């Protein structure tokens, strides 16, 4: 019996069982059930999973065409003088290259290979930056989409956090996994190890783990080091040290290569890869240098620039960017007027930033300046991955939803008018990054300008880490058993294209005080706020732990067309706002009263 014949029989049987339950089982002959069940057991390596090849997979079993191979080839690592090959980096590279995970053919496609994944969602960023993000510690939960990896019956998963995750949150994700596959919650839990440091300070999670050898030993006892690797949100010396302590590879950009994810490093990569990017500067370390550079560019462009964007070299998610408008400049006294304009009229995108703190950060981290792209119609992004062999694989494209320059959400995929250009640019940029030694995922932000009959695409910056678009893609991909087509669209196992709108930024103070369990109970009681595992469409929520204290959470709205995804997103927001109004009406707020009432004489 061929795999396709088996798949068709299995799907018929699966439909029959779901529709009729135990009665349907009684109608299936013992011989047929045993033969199909045995075959499925062998094909799935010991566990029943939902498997339906897409039409494109049936018609074209080769995942990568020969014509595509040439543009994925990379040269040996470029020994750039700015990023010397450190001993610890050399050790990690050797560990990765000689490890079983390096034999994996594709990291962008779902596989059933035997592997142990250690997820360490450490926010290894400056404490001063994390303090600006309400509930920053709760963002360790954004990578819980990794739980959907447990659909692979040969995979074990370790998920570490600073504080314990409520059981109801884990159950919510595993219930979605069970609904979308034949992996039961109980079976998934056998292959899942949750690790908590019980430490709520803003110290990076990786540092907390390194100070707890018993937790590290617990991880070692759970994994097979020959097939295990560490995944993280962002790579620093702490994540590298943690991987070395565990004796497994860190599949992430080595921290000694983090320069290529800075604003100045991004501009160097853009130049070398030959993609278009805005006119601007190299790295500057003083207001004097910044002012002189702005004056030079402004003069060279015949004073036809409306504004400049100033970027701290290590800012993230739009934080650290600021705007200076040229209407404050005096051409007759240009340099001095620029200095005054910067000190008095620089517009910061991040609350809590001021001129004094900005000047100090310029001295420490450096800053670049770029010409603002006027009349930009959108700000899309493209995500890709560089596998251990140095091969670039595209993961997704998105339209970013921004509040000013602060990331709030995304729409998948980017518009078809320029999606191919984004993908081509990502291949060019990824090839340069791979030659410099970078590995794992990266993302490029662009801005698009409509000119005449075409589009001009400017590359803006590179992030060599996870971003806000990573977890929505993983959620949609794994819950719909989808693969990315050549034209950048997800094709689900039902042969339907999948589209989604996602956000991390739903916020309403009236939700404060609601526990994640209460919120999940509300979701489960409302049909329009759930994921339909039969139609492979619906809503999936995340960031539950930020609800109680900050009234903040996120969700992904998945549908079969861009219009349906947008409508589902809007209706979800509307339902949640209505619920928030009802919750607010029932809430009773009381203030602390410390007045002492004296008894009357």
TrEMBL record:
Q: Which UniProt keywords apply?
A: ATP-binding, Nucleotide-binding
Transmembrane keyword on record: no
Q: Please list the residue ranges annotated as the ATP-grasp domain.
A: 267-490
Region named Disordered: 54-87
Basic and acidic residues: compositionally biased ranges: 65-74
Identify the PANTHER family for this entry: IQ DOMAIN-CONTAINING PROTEIN H
Report the protein name in the record.
Answer: ATP-grasp domain-containing protein
């Amino acid at each position: 019996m061929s795999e396709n014949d088996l798949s068709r029989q299995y799907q018929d049987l699966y439909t029959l069982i779901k529709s009729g339950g135990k009665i349907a089982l009684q109608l299936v002959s013992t011989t047929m059930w045993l033969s199909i069940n045995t075959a499925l057991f062998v094909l799935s390596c010991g566990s029943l999973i939902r498997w339906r090849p897409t039409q494109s997979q049936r018609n074209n079993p080769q995942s990568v065409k020969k014509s595509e191979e040439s543009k994925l080839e990379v040269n040996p690592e470029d020994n750039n003088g700015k990023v010397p090959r450190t001993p610890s980096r050399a050790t990690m590279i050797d560990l990765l290259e000689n490890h079983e995970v390096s034999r994996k053919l594709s990291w962008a496609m779902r596989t059933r290979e035997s592997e142990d994944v250690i997820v360490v969602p450490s926010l290894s960023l400056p404490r001063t930056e994390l303090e600006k993000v309400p509930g920053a510690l709760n963002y360790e939960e954004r990578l819980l989409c990794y739980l959907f990896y447990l659909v692979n019956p040969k995979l074990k998963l370790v998920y570490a956090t600073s504080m314990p995750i409520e059981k109801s949150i884990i159950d919510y994700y595993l219930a979605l996994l069970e609904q979308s596959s034949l992996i039961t919650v109980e079976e998934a839990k056998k292959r899942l190890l949750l690790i908590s440091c019980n430490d709520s300070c803003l110290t990076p999670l990786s540092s907390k783990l390194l100070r707890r050898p018993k937790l590290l030993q617990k991880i070692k006892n759970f994994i097979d080091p020959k097939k295990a690797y560490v995944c993280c949100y962002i790579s620093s010396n702490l994540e590298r040290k943690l991987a070395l302590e565990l004796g497994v590879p860190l599949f992430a950009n080595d921290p000694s290569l983090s320069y290529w994810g800075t604003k100045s490093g991004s501009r160097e990569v853009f130049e070398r890869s030959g993609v278009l990017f805005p006119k601007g500067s190299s790295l500057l370390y003083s207001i004097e240098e910044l002012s002189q550079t702005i004056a030079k560019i402004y003069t060279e462009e015949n004073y036809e620039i409306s504004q400049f964007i100033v970027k701290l070299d290590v800012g993230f998610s739009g934080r650290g960017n600021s705007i200076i408008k040229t209407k404050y400049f005096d051409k007759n006294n240009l340099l001095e007027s620029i200095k005054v304009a910067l000190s008095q009229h620089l517009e910061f995108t991040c609350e809590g930033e001021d001129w004094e703190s900005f000047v100090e950060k310029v001295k420490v981290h450096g800053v670049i300046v770029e010409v603002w792209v006027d009349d930009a119609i959108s700000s899309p992004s493209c995500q890709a991955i560089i596998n251990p062999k140095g091969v670039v694989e595209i993961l997704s494209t998105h339209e970013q939803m921004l509040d000013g320059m602060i990331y709030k959400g995304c729409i998948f995929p980017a518009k078809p008018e320029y999606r191919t250009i984004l993908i081509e640019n990502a291949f060019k940029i990824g090839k340069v990054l791979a030659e410099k030694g970078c590995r794992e995922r990266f993302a490029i932000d662009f801005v698009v300008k409509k000119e005449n009959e075409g589009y001009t695409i400017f590359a803006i910056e590179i992030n060599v880490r996870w971003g806000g678009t990573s977890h929505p893609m993983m959620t949609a991909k794994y819950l719909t058993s989808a693969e990315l087509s050549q034209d950048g669209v997800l094709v689900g196992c039902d042969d339907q294209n999948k589209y989604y709108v996602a956000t991390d930024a739903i916020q309403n103070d009236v939700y404060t005080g609601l526990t994640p369990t209460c919120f999940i109970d509300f979701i489960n009681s409302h049909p329009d706020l759930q994921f339909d595992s039969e139609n492979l469409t619906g809503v999936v929520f995340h960031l539950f732990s930020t609800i109680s204290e900050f009234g903040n959470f996120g969700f992904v709205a998945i549908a079969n067309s861009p219009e349906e995804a947008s409508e589902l997103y809007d209706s979800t927001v509307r339902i949640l706002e209505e619920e928030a109004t009802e919750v607010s009406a029932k809430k009773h707020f009381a203030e602390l009263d410390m007045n002492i009432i004296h008894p009357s004489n």
